[in-house]
Amino acid sequence: MTKRTIRDLLGDHPFFADLDPEYLDLIAGCGQNVVFAADTPIAREGEPADFFYVLREGRVALDVHEPARGPIVVATLSPGDVLGWSWLFAPYRWRFDVRALEPVRAVALDGVCLRGKCDADPRLGYDLVHRFAGIMVARLESTRLQLLNVYGWPA
Amino acid sequence: MKVDGAASGPVVLDTAGLAAAVETLIGDGWSVIAPTVRDGAMVHDVIESVADLPTGWGDKQEPGRYRLRRRDDSARFGYAAPAQSWKRLLFPPRTTLWRAHRPPPGSADRDAGDFVVQVATATPRYAFLGARACEVRAIEIQDRVFLGGAHTDPGYRAARESALVIAVNCSSPADTCFCSSMDAGPRVASGADVVLTEVAEPQHREPWYLAEAFSDRGAALLRRVPSAAATPEAIDAADAVVANAAAHMGREMPDVDLHELLSESLEHPRWDDVAERCLACTSCTLVCPTCFCSSVEDVTDLTGTEARRDRRWASCFELDHSYLHGGSIRSGIRSMYRQWLTHKLGTWFDQFGTSGCVGCGRCVTWCPAGIDITEEIRAIAGPHLQEVTP
Amino acid sequence: MTATATATGPMAPMVPHRYRVVSRHTETSDTVTIHVEPLGDPIDAPRPGQFAMLWAFGIGEVPISFSGLPGDGRLGHTIRAVGTATSALAASEPGTVIGVRGPFGNGWDVGDADGGDVMIVAGGLGLAPLRPAVDAVLAERDRYRRAVLLIGTRSPDDLMFHDDLARWRGRLDLDVQVTVDAADTGWHGDVGVVTTLIGRVPVEPGNTLALVCGPEVMMRFTTRSLIDRGLDAERIRVSLERNMQCGVGHCGHCQLGPELVCLDGPVFAWSRVAAQSAVRER
To answer: CA-nearest residue of chain A to B327?
Structure first.
């Protein structure tokens, strides 16, 4: 059995479905395999968002730290999801704490490296931003439903 | 006058014959309910004899207006639909469905908390005299609601199955009538035991009646009262009365597929327009002979040992009609009116296989704002009408 | 003249059957599950997805779905205390006698998924009418292929049916996933609305029957997510709620366009009610 390359792993991930193979090569050049043990921090609010993560195994939690209550989980992400878009927008800092809930395997993609490639090739930049925008739309809808207290029956 | 023993075929009744029919029914234990004038209004009530019928009375109906008037003949059925329909007898405005009793809470009774339910089983025996084609059709429509589905309403069934219907073909439609265009009148086509056509004579001479039995019970009644065989001339005269009525409908429902029109017009601007005029007073639903919505109310005594379940008429114009979890689904008049009209003329077909409208015009007459459903349909149909009208 | 009414007698279906509360279990801060057993004539055996009209003596009557059908004549009802009648019913201690009319409505007919996959999606109290459907699937598990149960609630404290959840989660032939809107770190499940779960489970759209119950907004977004995953709206069933006072199609309150929800529903193919549900009332 041959070892699967970063490019293979990215190519199999739904986030990169149907991406131009040429771009897959380019993006793979910014990636590295990472693992996190259960209950370890992956990112911390306010710190530089140098990477984003293509989740392959294990779930992660997005937390907000509330002084009197400790962490409050605002969302969990699962394999098939991508974690982080702060690398794409100034000031390139994490907005939430991120924690591995289970042993996590992911491909970490270097944001600085990717931003450079997007700036050099706006078609790649548009494609990536478009993919992230789709995720943001879905997360925004979910967040709105959470705000609605959609199970409050009756309100 | 000879007694006609024929089992079928129309016969002619004079006043004595009609009087004999009423007497026979009363003698047989029927409560004969007929239109009668009381306090300046036409109401349905128990009558003792033909003398209680509104002889020489007619009416004048317009959107938002109702007046009794004297006729220049002695017709007993020379008016259109009065405010109240027969609905209130078969489906009373308020009725107690059952009562329940239990031992006082906390008592040592071994059945503490358990209750016993009792229902009233008295069944009225009504003979409806003077029901019009539109009203008989309305009863047939309510039959579909209360008896036609998987579940039947026991109170309605009891009253309905015993009721005898002596209908009268309409001679004097009002300005608000449109039964012809709803295929519901002015001639009674079915649903009655006996159908009369009243032929009024000038100078206040006594009217006479062409009588047709539509059921065995009706035929049996006619055999027991003095009558004459109907001559071709008598039949022609009666037909002319009905033809004249058909020619004098005050209104007409536009000839369009109402079910389709309304299902496609839920966002028509006319709903906003009518909402400006409608007062949501519920009058139309109360006078409508087919409206069947009801609400239940639980009543209990202070000791908590006696309880009662009452059912009363409800209206889709009441805010709590669509109440669900702290709010009403239809909270504005636009929605309420749209519900009433789209149900009456449209979705009624989906639910019961007929229109819910019989063209009696009551909702037009008794609307304090004079809203006319034929006019509302005309406005909504707009371009559709031009397509079908040459 | 009066007569003692038997609920199966001439006044059926308007007369309540007498049932005694035999157990009362607190589910959440405002929701309890009661089980009742008949004192006299029982109602006909209900099917999953049907509902009953429950009567608190002298207080009022409300439509409540069956949340438990143990099959021994007892009936389970999960009741959220929001009004006078529901509060009285929810407060009914064992021994209390309540009135029961029904069963009314059509039910989930989960057997229509025969030979295919079943996906059950519940939001909040919507799990109550689905619980008998889950058990119906498990009772004849061989008839179905993949079975998925997705549950969304406001918080971990709002989760109901802990024993059933433990039992369901213990089965290898039922994929149970639970998500909440917000939680502290003591919660190890998912956080996010229930629609996010739909994107995470394998779906074979042409071969799946989905049963959805929850507040109407939740069902609308859920059906959208299911359709996004390729399901046909005819294969998505929702259970609707409207004002109901008779249960037999006579009182008129539960109309949704052409539908009488108590009679034609409460379970509808989404294809049948999507357009009506989109009509704006105001």
So the answer is: A154
